[in-house]
Design brief:
The complex is a heterotrimer of chains A (286), B (336) and C (255).
Chain A: H1 2-32, H2 39-56, H3 61-82, H4 91-113, E1 129-132, E2 135-138, H5 139-161, H6 163-173, H7 175-180, H8 185-211, H9 217-232, H10 237-257, H11 262-276
Antiparallel strand pairs in A: 1-2
Chain B: H1 21-32, H2 39-64, H3 73-90, H4 95-117, H5 123-142, H6 171-194, H7 196-206, H8 208-213, H9 218-244, H10 254-267, H11 274-292, H12 297-311, H13 316-328
Helix pairs in contact in B: 2-6, 2-9, 2-10, 2-11, 3-4, 3-9, 4-9, 6-7, 6-9, 7-9, 10-11, 11-12
Chain C: E1 2-13, E2 16-27, E3 31-35, H1 42-49, E4 57-62, E5 65-66, H2 72-78, E6 80-83, H3 95-105, H4 121-134, H5 149-162, E7 167-171, H6 179-190, E8 197-201, H7 205-211, E9 214-219, E10 222-227, H8 229-234, H9 236-242
Parallel strand pairs in C: 3-8, 3-9, 6-7, 7-8
Antiparallel strand pairs in C: 1-2, 1-4, 4-5, 9-10
Helix pairs in contact in C: 3-4, 3-5, 5-6
Classes of the chains: A mainly alpha (286), B mainly alpha (336), C alpha/beta (255).
Chain lengths: 286, 336, 255
Amino acid sequence: MENLVINLLNGLSYGMVLFLIASGMSIVMGAMNIINLSHGVLYMIGGYVGWTVAVKLGAPFALGLLAGGLAAGLVGLMLERGFLRFLYKQPNEQVLLSFGFVYILSNLSLWVWGGWPRMPFTAKFLSGSFEILGRAYPKARFATIVFGLVLAGILWWLQDRTRVGAMVRAGMDNKEITMGLGINLERLFAIVFFVASFIAGLAGVIGAQLLGVYNALGLEILLLALIVIIVGGVGSIQGALLGGILIGLVDAFGKALFPRFAMFTMYFTMIIVLLLKPRGLFGRKV
Amino acid sequence: MVASDREVVRGPEQVKWIQFAPYFAVATILVVLPLFLSSYTQGVMTRFLVFALFSAGYNLVFGYLGLPSLGHAAYFGAGGYAVAVLKLHYGTDLFWLGVPLGILTATLIAALFGLIALRVSGLYFLLVTFALGQLLFSVAWNVKWLNSPGMQGIAGLSFPSFGIPGLTVNSTSYYYLVLLITAFCILALHRIVCSPFGHALVGIREGEDRMRALGYNTWLYKYIAFIISGAFSGVAGVLFAYYNYMIDPNHLGVGTSFLPMCMAIIGGMGTLLGPVLGAAVIISVELVASIVTPDRWPLILGGIFVLTIMFARQGIGVYLVELSKRAGYPYGSTKG
Amino acid sequence: MEALKVDGLSINFGGVKAVNDVSFSVEVGERLAIIGPNGAGKTTLFNLINGQLSPTRGQIFFFGEDVSDLPTHQRAQLGQARSFQIISLLQNLTVLENTLLTLHGTKPHRFKMFRQIQDFRDVFEKAVYELKRVGLWEKRGDLVKNLSYGEQRRLEIHLGLSMEPKLLLLDEPSAGSTKEESADIIGIIKNLESDITVLIVDHDMEMVFELAERIMVLHYGEVIADGTPDEIQIDQRVREIYMGVEESTDHVGAC
C-alpha cells in the first residue's frame, strides 16, 4: 500500500515535468506547424539559469524560476524571429535547423556551465520531507505536482478563455480563415513561441527539483517530450497532460515492478498507442 | 528543382561528353589519390565513402519518396552491431558472415519499424521515427550482451578477414573494398531510381492521391522503399564497424541519424549524387575541425546545419547539375 | 449490363449528411451527368465511388462486383479512371514522366526495380503516341506546372483515357477553361468508344446538355431528379433549386 502511494506520487510528479516540457512543444506544433527539436535544450537552459540564480547567487527559488523561464523564452524568441519564421511549412528544414541549435546551445552551455551535473535544488521551505504512511517523502516532489497542476490550469485558461487562445485554436483549424480575419499571424506566432519556450524554461527549473541539471538533459528530455506528444496527440493541453501523467506513471511503476526493463516501458506504451490510435489519445490532424 | 533523375525519361537525346567529365575526374581522384595518402587519411576517405553510401540509401526515402525519417541510424547501427557482436561473442571477423548478417539485421528492423512508422504521416512521422531510433539506442545502452565488459559499446573490432590464406586486409585494401561496394550500391540505387518503381516513389512524393487513383498501392511502395533504404544503411553500418575499431550506442542514436539528412540537403535531396557531395563536405569539415578544435566539433556541426538551411537549402549539387546541364543539354526547361 | 450500381450510399461529416441514401445504376456505355448547386455532394459522391472516402452506409458495385471495401488503387486496377476538379497532375514532374507513370500504373510490371523506365518499349511507344495525339510531344520535357491551364486539362483527360478505363469519372472537366477549350473537351468525350461509361460533374450546362444521355440532380446530398435532359429541363423541383441562381451556369471554376 505504501509502495503504491509512493509510486503513484513519483509517477505524478515526474509526469508533471513531462507535461510541462511537452505542452509547449505540442502547442507550437499544433498551432504553427513548427517542430522545434531544440525545445529540450531550452528546458536545460532554464534549469542552468535557475541554478545560477537560486543556488550560485543565493536568490530566492521563485526568482530562479522566473529567470529560467525568461532565459529560455528569450532564446526561443530569438530562434523563432531569427530563423524558424522563414521556414513555415518546411518540416525537413525545421528539424535540421533546430537540431543544429541542439548542438550549438548544448556546446555553449558546456562552455558556460561546465560538464559536471548539478544536484537537484529547491526552495528553502520546500527542502526536507513530509511523512506519508510512515515513509519520508520529499516536499519538493509535492511542489512539482502542485506547480504542474497550476500551470496546466493557467494554460487551459489561456487556450479556452482568452483571445490569444481562441486565435491559436482558429489557426489550428484553418490558417486561411485566421489570416482572413485580419489577425496578425506573425505576432501571434512570436507570442505563442515565446510562451512555449518560457514554459520550457520554467519546466527546467521545476524539473531540476527532481532531476538536477546536466548537459545531456536537453536531448533526453526532448525524447521524453516526443513520446508524450505521440501518446497524447499533437496540439492540445489535455493530450500533453494526459500523456505526461500516463508516461510518468508507466515509468514509475515500471521502475518499481520490472527494474530491468524500466527503460522500455514507455516505448512499449508509445507503440501500443501508435498501433491502436495512430494520432494519439487526443490527436488532431496535422 | 531536381534535375538529374529527370533526364532519364527525356528520351534518347544527344549526350555530350562534357557531361561526364566531372564524374571521370571524381572517379580518378577516388581511385588514385589514396595511394599517396597516410593510413589515417585513407581512414578519413573510407569514412567519407561509408557516409556517402549511408546518405545515398537514406535519400531514397528522404529525397525521392519525401519521407523525412529521423531514425535511420537505427539501421546503420544495427548493421554495425551485428558485426561487433560476431566479433565479441563468436570471435569471428569473417567478411562473408558479417555482411549478410548485418544486412539481414538492418533489413528486419527496418521492416518492423516501417510497419509502425508508416501508420502516421507528416510531423508525426518525424516524431515516431525519432523515438523508434532512440528505442534501439536505449536497447544497446541497457542490454549487457550488446556491450564489451566495462564500457558502453563494443570495442576491439578490426578489418574483416576473408578466410583466404595469405590475404590480410590493411587500410589501403579496405579502402578499395569499401570503394567497390559503395560504387556497386550507388549503381544499384541508380537502377532503382530510374525504374518504374523509383519513378513511382517520386510520383508519391508529388501527389499520393493521384498515384492511388492511377492504380498504385502507395503504402506498399513506401514500405518497400523504407526497407530497401534500411538495408543500404545496414551495408554502410557494416562497413563502418569494420574500420572504426568500435561501435557504441550513439551510432544508433539521433545524432547519427541527422548526418545523412544534412548531407542529402547540402548536396541536393532527390538526386543520386547529392548525398555523396554532401558527405564530402561534412567529412572534410570534420577532418579540419578534428585537427584544429576537437572540443568545438558539435558547435561547428550545429553551425553547418544552420548555415545549410539558411543558405544552401536547395543543395549545392543541384546547382552544379544545372551548370553541367547548360554545358551539355539542348533543353533549358528545368529551371522551374 | 450495369457498369456501376450504387445502393443506399450515405456519408456523414461530423453530423452533416453530405451524401444521403443515394441509389442509382449506370448502364455500360451510358453518359450520366450529375448536377446540383454548390455543396450538393457531387464531388463527395465521386470520392465515394473511387474509394477516396469510405461510406458510412451503403454499397457500390462495379460490373457486378462489390467494391465498397476496396482501396482506391484496386478500383483503378479494375478500370476506374478519374480526373479531378483541381488538376491533379504531378506538377513538379515532366509531361513525359506523368504520362509514363499513368501508363505504368495498371501494368503488372509497375513494381519492377532494376530496369529503367524507358526500357519498357511498349509503354514508351504508347506514351509517345499519346503525347503526339494531345499535341504535347514537343513539350514532353517541360514540367507540368509550366504548361498553360488548358494544356494541363487536356493532358489530364487524355491520360485518364490512356488508362483504357471502363468507367471515367470527370469532375468539372470544364472548370477554368475558355470556350474553345471546353469545346475541345466536349469533342474528346464525344469521340470516346461507346463502351466506356462516363460520369460527369459540371456547372457548365451547355456541356452537360451536349454530352449527357441522362442527368441526375443532387441537392443536399439527395437525388431529387433523375431522367433524360428533356425531362430534367421541365422538372419543377429542379427549376425551383436553380431559379434565381442562374449565375451558377457561368460561375465556372467555383467549388
